[in-house]
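Quick one, T. Sequence first:
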Amino acid sequence: MVTQINFPAESDIVLTSAVDSISANTTDTSVEVRLICKNGAGGSPDQLYENTLYSFDDRVELSGVGELVEEYFRRSGKVSDVINVAFGSLSVDIEFLYCEWNLPEAFDPWTAFYLASRSQRVYPDSVVTIAAADHGSATPFIIRAVGHNMADGAVSVVTKEETHTLNDKNTVYFQVKDIITAAHGAAPTIPAARLRDVMWFSIEYGGTQKMFYVVDAPAYLSFVFCNIFNVEETIDIVGTVTTKTEVDADTAVVGGRLKQYNREPKRVYEVQTAPAPAAEIPLFEQFLSSHSVVMTLEGNDYEVTIEDFTSESSSSDESLTTFKFTWRFSDRRPRIFDTSVNGILHPDRGIFEKPFTPEYE
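Structure tokens:
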């Protein structure tokens, strides 16, 4: 019989990366072990693992618990949930938070955001993510936009509170253009309370905030990826894109002439990013190592695969951090789009279409 599960029964939210194994004391030679999510598909329980363990020195141990839970969360699209861990007739409920990396001991799942970085650059047509523990409907999202007011051009702050319900992935999404629009017309009759531009804004929830710096230009390359918490975030990347097309084929000599067969065309895109601020390095690192990446292009989402990347951030003051990576659409065949350079690059900016005006005379 199982006499004790060696895991704190009253534990708080637990990171999957922090649980390598769970053991139990037993007088039996073998024990049935089960992992069950009580809130499975359709609200019914899901059994994600079952096995028989054999005891040694009156003890059984289940290894790889965190990886088992992560695989289930990825498959079911969860960020956190309660998993019932049963050894024979004894069981313990553990609230797991998906986390692929080891985090500092000071990380508090109740107060931290489940995001890759504390600040990032965004564009007027970007989508931003806030993911956190649910603090209830009474806790508002506080948006503070900073820019020049319409009265005298002084730098001013416009504050707005909104209530949102976190979705089943503990996430709320905001459109940057909606935040800018609200700041432009926050108080139509009071010019000092209206902003003619937005330089940056913050979103606060549950006492924690993230900063967003607005770049007044069209977004270049937009990707949606799952970060280390399995939360979908958006990253807009500026850089140089090189398109490479090749054909893989087998060659044989037929009738004295070379013939190709099993021909498979392949198109990859090599990106050399512009220098990234230090605060965005974790964002790039989690994007490049993500298990799920989607590219937003011409209003549609396309699954892509990052085949190779170089990430070398340095503490040296002599150079800024850049990233280089190669990606392709996950379809077997290359894709062609109607826009310039197969839909990946912006059209020419037309700098030579107007008469030249010297800056200095």
